[in-house]
Amino acid sequence: MKLLESFKQFYASSIGKKLLVALSGAVLLLFLLGHLLGNLVIYLGRGALNDYAEFLHHALHGMGVWIARVGLLGAVGIHIMATIHLAAQNRAARHSRYAYESTQTASKASRTMIISGTIILCFIIFHLLHFTILPNDLKDVTTAGHVRPDVYGMVVKGFQNVLVSLFYIVSMAFVCFHLSHGVSSVFQTLGFRSEKSADMIKWLGHGYAAFIFLGNISIPIAVLLGFLKF
Amino acid sequence: MAKKLQLTLKVWRQPSGKAEGRIETYDAKDIPVTASFLEMLDIVNEGIIADGGEPIAFDHDCREGICGMCSLTINGCPHGPGKGVTTCQVHMRSFQDGDTIWIEPFRADAFPVLKDLMVDRTAFDHIIQAGGFISARTGSAVDANATPIPKPVADAAFDAAACIGCGACVAACKNASAMLFVAAKVEHLGMLPQGKAEKDRRVLSMVRAMDDHGFGNCTNQYECEAVCPKEISATYITKMNRDFAAASVKEAVVTEF
User: Is beta strand A147-149 parallel, antiparallel or unpaired with respect to B118-119?
Assistant: First the structure.
């Protein structure tokens, strides 16, 4: 099939793979924002968060959450596969290293994307096991007598464990680090950066990373400080 | 009398492309601060020749920053200290008495070492041959302004055309990527009416030629832009990414180039 041949050729090129990393990255970035805004519903109380969780699980007759899961899994898969190929090519492009290494402008984050990315992958696996695949079976009974999973209780109980909270906070630091290079890179690779907008995009990236970090860590901190009670 | 510097050089010596290379130490004595970096190497070489040794081989030609022949990675930075200069424009006044200076070739698998500090940059010629030209015969020079080109477009095209093809972008890139060179060459033609006709075909074939030569991939760190002696902006890479995406889609679903 001709289109498949074209796609193979596209993937074989360096910019083709980069575009896939940027597009899948953009999907994940937007997901992170949606996920954070959803998480912050916890501050509105048990009822609100459990309503929100119930809404997500019943959207499109229960299909919505599966569409999102398949889409996200696809994005993560593409992001990882293409970066592994790119990184392998990068390594192969310079066998003899400089005896005197120096860096002009490249940030620490930009030089350790593979490491921060791998740590984030481990976090995602833990996070899914913790809250999605193996949740505790706390139940919330509404005033109408309707029984539903108590997501609020699961989160608060989960974060009351100091080690778990600490792990989440450290993981979010790595997400923030990854995004500090990733967000502006999406703009560069997809071709939306100019001399005039370069600074704005850089600060947008740093601001976005900081927002995701602070928003998310506020929850375990609020639990540990006792603002969010079971 | 100009001030004299006493320096220690750590220089990459490699008898041929196939031989193993290693760092050798040389004393560079009584180097006048007024000397250029390449003149300093000339002085050191004269000493080596007088002692019956093999002089350090390095590339150079015009020695005024326009030919793109000189290379050298000085203390880890292609073209050494200073912004917007080639190695031949670096002067010894940029160094202090007693300094140790590391001098290495531009390192990239796509730029194999020929001897000592000289590397083979033929890969760049192959990329140009893949599409860095206009294939229509343009005849003799037409009247100026017969083809109106807005001033900002002409300026942007000229800024890209300032690329001298030295390869510092590849040498500085953490991944030995040639994206800044290719982007400059693709975009300086692609922005102008004479080059626009072949824009899609050009970006596809030049990027593919770049990939075929085993350069690395861009990770948006802008090391290239920082060392480019002609200060070519990495936003040309942004434009090339966009043009490559559009051309790929066109090729896949609309037409052959």
Answer: unpaired
- Hey, are the CB atoms on B215 and A106 less than 8 Å from each other? no
A–B CB contacts, 8 A cutoff, strictly below: 145
Burial of residue A213 (CB within 10 Å: 0-12, 13-18, 19+) is buried
Chain B residues inside the 8 Å CB shell of A19: 241, 244-245
| ipTM of the complex as predicted | 0.93
Question: Tell me: the pLDDT tens digits for B89-99?
Answer: 999 999 999 99
Beta strands in B105-236 (DSSP E): 113-115, 118-119
Q: Where in the sequence is the domain holding B77, given as residue range(s)? A: 4-114
Query: By three-state DSSP, how is residue B91 classified?
Result: strand
Model confidence pLDDT, tens digit, residues B20-65: 999 999 999 999 999 999 999 999 999 999 999 999 999 999 999 9
Q: How confident is the model at residue A153 (pLDDT cuts 50, 70, 90)?
A: very high
Using the 3D structure, point to which of B114, B130, B148 is the last residue of a domain. B114
Q: Do B129 and B57 fall into the same domain? A: no
